[in-house]
Design brief:
This protein is of the alpha/beta class and 574 residues long. It has 22 helices and 18 strands. The longest helix is centred in the last third of the chain and has 23 residues.
Length: 574
């Protein structure tokens, strides 16, 4: 796992490093800029694929005139020729061109320093553009501009506002047109507009700069700390946001790079050390709830005891299925068995039992008896329970779910319609003392809590719910969040859009329940959050393997189950 930090925490850590430890803020900025410059250099020198002529839709838009308008003047012809030379010059001179967009804060200072370092390295043409009000420049950014000037560079003003495209051509002067034409020929752009501080929508010239970084799909963008337009804490896209190829983030990852829409804008997120003392970082974060991102399991699965029998690896009770939903219970049961469950008892309604029984080989399906005490006795004799996949929302189902939650003194995973049954009855969850894991997607979470959709701050919503109700919450979606009652949380970084198909949640729920039921995986302290997060990660890794083998369009939840042996074998102790 890799540690994360909120924007407020990072600002406080920077302050303490500078004020209490005497770390030079300019030195931190230089280190950050060097990491960004190195990333730009990597992108400029991939394996040689040949040289492609530049075609620019932006410049074409600038030099066009209305067909029914007056003929161009001599001055307009001269300006058009200058623009053509900028474009065509790229075809005759393949020297890489780099544009660095710098805002008025210290993130902009990182950009200015990056431009100087790239210029000093040579072998490329670099232009740095200042966006915003120069009166708001920080002292550190001003110092970096002085260094850029001393090295022979210049921080140019970028003042093009494309908010009103209908008046753009009439208000844009020749120099602004030249800037846009040059930008259309760039090989790499650097986004150093905002960093972690943005909280409101991107507007005006900042929006224009973001749009310029979006305008050429084949021009990669390297973002400093966080792509501009993305909320560093929530991943919310604030109006417009940069689509980065690589985001170089400093000291610790930011939650918005891994959760919500921001995860799709960050590209490859690289966490780099910029010189903040490690002991200071440890002192500040050791007393805070853990906040991490998981790219791979935190530890390997332990070897199974040689003298164990099937009962030692968990008796799992699954309550699932309804008419029209016969696949959900089967997928959940198969996933549980593939994840190591020793025995799986699958209770389904009488009317679908014949169908489910034909589909199951290793799991043991049975028709649910009418007598509640018989159901409770079967479930109570198990080590863990999964309630909800495809269960339906009838009044009888709702009462059955609430009764089992009240009476069972064992770990329960509540999924799908099991979660829906809790709506209006959250007190039943509050009274539970045994571990409980809820696995809602945002729609189910909204029905349960009444929150608006989309959930803008997924991390805070999950942490607050988990803390308030004493359960583990697995809030599914882009960057699935696993939150624990103590405030700790883990954002999952595995998985892909090919997993967004009916049945994927059933597979995940079965996997979580299987891990919770295996005695040799449980610890003396309650490690339910860690086991749930591990299951989410394994689920995503299996999905990524399927995407490589079948493609995101064709892969199925059943394929994910079949990929689990390869994934779990890799993460078992030898």
């Amino acid at each position: 796992m890799l540690p994360l930090a909120t924007a407020a925490q990072m600002k406080e850590l920077d302050r303490r490093a500078i004020e209490e430890r005497g770390v030079s803020s300019l030195e931190l900025m230089e280190h950050a800029a060097r990491a960004v410059a190195d990333t730009v250099w990597e992108l400029l020198h991939p394996e040689e694929d040949g040289f492609s002529p530049v075609l620019s839709s932006v410049s074409s838009m600038i030099v066009m005139r209305k067909k029914d308008g007056p003929p161009p003047t001599d001055e307009e012809e001269r300006q058009a020729e200058e623009l053509r030379e900028i474009i065509e010059g790229k075809n005759t001179d393949p020297t890489p061109r780099i544009a660095v967009f710098c805002g008025p804060g210290n993130n902009g200072g990182d950009g200015v320093a990056c431009a100087r370092l790239l210029m000093e390295q040579g072998g490329c043409r670099v232009r740095a553009f200042f966006v915003g009000d120069r009166a708001k420049m920080t002292p550190d950014e001003t110092a970096m501009e002085d260094r850029l000037t001393a090295a022979g560079g210049r921080l140019e003003d970028f003042s093009v506002d494309m908010t009103d495209r209908s008046t753009l051509e009439a208000t844009m002067d020749c120099e602004q047109q030249k800037i846009l034409a040059w930008l259309s020929t760039c090989d790499v752009m650097v986004d150093a507009l905002f960093g972690i501080g943005l909280k409101r929508p991107v507007e005006g010239v900042f929006r224009t700069a973001v749009l310029q970084m979006q305008s050429r799909m084949n021009c990669p963008v390297v973002a400093c700390d966080v792509p501009s337009g993305v909320n560093a804490d929530t991943g919310e896209v604030l109006g417009e946001a940069v689509q980065a190829k690589v985001t170089v983030t400093f000291t610790r990852g930011k939650p918005g790079l891994y959760s919500g829409p921001g995860a799709g804008r960050a590209g490859e997120a690289r966490i780099v050390d910029i010189g903040i003392p490690h002991d200071l970082e440890y002192q500040m974060f050791r007393a805070l709830p853990r906040l991490e991102v998981m790219h791979q399991p935190d530890s390997q699965l332990p070897l199974r005891p040689r003298n164990a029998h099937k009962g030692d690896f968990g008796k799992l009770f699954i309550l699932a299925g309804s008419e029209g939903c016969t696949g959900a219970p089967v997928l959940a049961a198969r996933a549980a068995l593939r994840t190591g469950a020793g025995l799986v008892y699958l209770g389904v309604p009488q009317e679908i039992y014949p169908i489910v029984a034909v589909k199951c080989d290793e799991a043991m399906p049975f028709p649910l008896p009418e007598d509640y005490s018989a159901i409770l006795e079967r479930a109570g004799g198990c080590d863990a329970a999964l309630i909800g996949p495809g269960l339906g929302r009838s009044p009888r189902v709702k009462q059955l779910v609430l009764s089992l939650l009240t009476d069972l003194d064992l770990p329960v995973v509540l999924d799908a319609d099991g979660i829906n049954a809790l709506a209006g009855h959250i007190d039943v969850l509050d009274r539970r003392r045994a571990p409980t894991v809820l696995t809602p997607h945002e729609g189910e979470f909204s029905r349960l809590t009444g929150c608006a959709l989309p959930v803008k701050d997924r991390l805070s919503a999950a942490r607050d719910f988990s803390r308030d109700h004493g359960c583990v919450l697995v809030l599914k979606g882009q960057g699935t969040v696993t939150a624990a009652p103590d405030g700790s949380a883990c954002i999952n970084a595995t998985g892909n859009p090919g997993m967004a198909k009916g049945g994927s949640g059933d597979v995940l729920a079965g996997m979580i329940a299987a891990l919770l039921g295996q005695k040799h995986l449980r610890q003396e302290r309650d490690n339910t959050p860690e086991l749930a997060a591990a299951a989410v990660c394994f689920h995503g890794l299996a999905g990524d393997l399927c995407a490589r083998n079948f493609g995101e369009y064709a892969m199925l939840p059943a394929d994910v189950i079949e990929a689990l042996p390869q994934v779990l074998r890799q993460w078992c102790e030898r």
